[in-house]
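ok so for the tutorial part 2 we go from a plain amino acid sequence to predicted structure tokens. step 1 is just haveing the sequence, like this:
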Amino acid sequence: MQQPFLFALLILIPIFTYFVARRRFPHFVRCSVGASFGAIVSPWALGLYSFYFLSPWGVAPGMLGLVLVLIHGAPGFKIAVTLELIPRGVVSGITSQVIVDSINGLFGAVVYGLLGLAIDKLRNRRVRVGVRQQSG
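step 2 — the prediction. this is what the tokens look like for a chain of 136 residues:
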């Protein structure tokens, strides 16, 4: 099995995070899952995209992976070129891909983590308001 197909297994990290966070940090489950999903979404999308070339059954996950790669690949690339971590106008190799995916992981973890935190705050506020109304 080639390495890009193994990237598809990265989705197990947010799933594992969900079960751990549900027990240990019940008020911040979505924040934890969002941060872990944001950290792995770029290489995971590449793994999904590689299924396109596997068989006719891989067309649907491959197209989903292509869309995700197009969406989640751009921020890290733009940041890396702006900070001159990778050369401008050159076909990038594996080193550049590692740099771009690392930046995408940091950027995605912050964005998805903050989105999850906002959802957690809204849900926790509703739960507290509902408890107050029942007890009062």
